[in-house]
Design goal:
alpha+beta, Alpha-Beta Plaits, 2 domains, 60% helix, 16% strand, elongated
């Protein structure tokens, strides 16, 4: 690979890393190609991408960027998982895959520029996803007006029962 090809690769990695909200670095030493393809497909399903790059090129690409905190942590064989939409979904996908795979080992990551350990990545994967959080928020927002209407209905219902009792008393 000559100097211009390396510069093009660095620029491509840098552009993708700038767009990514989360970056996960994993060791894939000895992983079969079929398993790597399944990982790529799984990451694409959640809005992510898997890159295999040389450590030196990754260090240069990550310098002075969004994920600068992990630039000095590239060693041996590295796979970069980049998440562009929902960071929790990518963390869940790669953590689940690492549990079933014997060869994929999570090393560290970066979320919005903050360095994460592999334990923190697993904790992130345990959080509810973006869709689940939106559903929980909408449920909470819907509960307030529903409870408000129920409260007023109970007040009116009580008043109607009292009026009905008065009417029956006067009728008797």
């Amino acid at each position: 690979m000559n100097r211009t090809e390396k510069a093009a690769v660095i620029e491509r990695i840098k552009a993708k890393a700038q767009d990514a909200s989360i970056t996960v670095v994993a060791d894939f030493k000895g992983m079969p190609v079929e398993e790597m393809l399944r990982l790529r497909v799984k990451l694409r399903e959640v809005g992510g991408e898997l890159l295999i790059v040389k450590n030196t090129l990754a260090r240069i690409a990550f310098t002075d960027g969004r994920h600068d905190a992990i630039k000095d942590m590239f060693r041996e064989n590295c796979a970069l998982a980049l998440g562009f939409s929902d960071p929790v979904a990518l963390a869940k996908a790669i953590t689940d895959f690492a549990r079933t795979s014997k060869k994929l080992v999570l090393r560290h990551g970066s979320l919005e520029g903050k360095a994460l350990t592999s334990a923190e990545l697993e904790d992130l994967a345990k959080l509810p996803g973006k869709q689940e959080l939106l559903a929980m928020t909408l449920g909470t927002m819907n509960a307030v007006p529903t409870n408000f209407v129920s409260l007023f209905a109970n007040v009116i219902r009580g008043m109607l029962y009292a009026l009905k009792a008065i009417e029956e008393k006067k009728a008797a």
